[in-house]
Structure formats: C-alpha cells, structure tokens
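Hello Y.,

Per our agreement to keep a running log of every chain we model this quarter, I'm adding this entry. I've kept the format consistent with earlier entries: sequence first, then predicted structure.
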Amino acid sequence: MITHTRVHLQTLVLLFFAVHLSQPVCVEVPSATEAVLGKPMMLTCIACLRREEIKPKTTVQWFFMPNTDDIAEDKTPIYKYVDESPIELDGPFKGRLTWRGSQDLQDVSIEIKNVTFNDSGVYECIVLREFEFDFFTPSVSVSKDIKLRVKEKASTDTTALYSEIMMYVLLVFLTFWLLVEMVYCYRKISKSDEQTQDTATNYLAIPSERKPPPAAPVTE
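Predicted structure for the entry above:
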C-alpha cells in the first residue's frame, strides 16, 4: 500500500514538472530595427510583469517620430490599447497597423503592413499599469523606443541566426537533461521500494520454526 502511494506521489510530481515546463515564460527581447520595403514589420514591445498573479489595468500607447535627431519633436500617436480593446488612430498608418499583443498584455507588440520608406523613424511604446488595492492604487509606466530603418532588400545577419539556433538547441538540451534526471530518480526510488517489499515478502515466507526466536524480555 505504501509503495502504491509513493508511486502515485511520484507521478503527481512528474506531472507538476511537466506542466511547469510547458508554461510560457516572459522574456523582454528587443525588437528588430530593419524593415524591408513592401513587407510586414513587427514592432516588438514586451514589458513583463514582476508578479503575474496580480492582474493590473493596462493601457498601451504607440507614438511615431519621423525625425530621429530630436525624439521630442513631431510625436504622433498612431495606436493605443484602452479598456481591453485596441484602437487604431487616424494618421499615416491608418489601415496598416495590426495588434499582435498577448492576452495577458505582457507583449503589446504591433505590426506594420506594407512598409514604406516614410515609415523610417523612432517608435515609442508606453505601457501604463494601474494596480488596484484596498487603500491605494499604485501605477507603473514603462517606455521603450525602437529606431526603425527601411531597406529595399533584406540583409543577411548570420550572427543573429546562429544565436537563435544555439538558444533553441540549449533549451532542448536542458529540457531533455531534466527529464532524464527525473526518470532516473523515479526508477531508483521504485527499485528501492521493490527491494524493500521483496525482503518483507521473503521474511513472511520463512516457516515459523526457522524464524529467529524473539529476544527474551529483560527482567530485573
């Protein structure tokens, strides 16, 4: 009975680790900065929550500045996310922007369709989070800038490609190593339980006349 209980507990532990490994992890990666003429371009803006169990009220604003020398000049709002709905604003990007953010609003990226040379400039992503508690409502603001350059043809970046391949290889290796360690521990514990059970079974199978006599009680 104890052996079956341990097996069930070990199975639950394995399932817990498997579910934990399958959960997505937020990583703040920088956005690409080179776009190809006539192609779609993803403007990546990721602002991870420090405590994901707290769900704040999130507002997102996107701005475009064509002049890269003076960021504060000609700051045009082009997109926003308010009250759980994305809103495309009037301007030169009207009809060419698509919301690509995640459901938990840690990823608030947008995509530009049919990129033109006029899309070169600085894009600013501002994320405002308001946390509602009983006595106060703190807020946190995160701002990120993306300097975009539009080229007629795509340039090959072998360094970024190799880095991405090595990252995925390392992730697969670490996951496989963890699974091997879990299986090894599981088999080792199961083998130990089987040996204990066999010892108890062999002891019970010995005839009563061959069993060692119990120790005599100590009397004063």
